Amino acid sequence: MTSTPGNLRHNLQATTLTVLGVVILLAVSGCDYARMTDDEAIETYGRKMPETPGYTVPVTGGIEKLKVADPQSLINPLPATPDAVARGRLAYGYYCLHCHGPLADGNGTVGQSFSPLPTDLHGPIVQQLTDGELFSNISLGYKRCPSLALTVAAKDRWAIIDYLRTLAAPPQKS
Fold this sequence. Notes:
Elements: H1 5-30, H2 33-37, H3 62-68, H4 82-95, H5 97-100, H6 124-127, H7 131-140, H8 154-165
Helix pairs in contact: 4-8, 7-8
């Protein structure tokens, strides 16, 4: 049998269509499109978030109440017991020591880079403030000191104040 240009063209087209058909058949049978459309990576936010219980999100009080309160009217609810002072010393070590230093004199590792240095917590500038004023300053921030209301629990902030009161400079003997 002799090959003519028409036969070669027909055979080439038939072979091309056959190969193309096999490739398409393999591609379609190898992909599970139904599973791919249900993939959570495609519809990450398609699921509804569970409802938050009402008692977990504050709707009254909190920092907003503190912002409008008169600092002098705030009263420390935590008695200055040895346990409260120890708790305050521990919290001071976590949150305040880096700037105010281990001796509370404003010479902490981070505080040394500030100009002026952080406040000496022994001195009258701090010790003459009321507990409420200290609580407001710690909670809302003061000058370079950041707001710690969202970082430190209120009970720990009051405990820090109890600890700061133990740092008052002893009276000078004349």
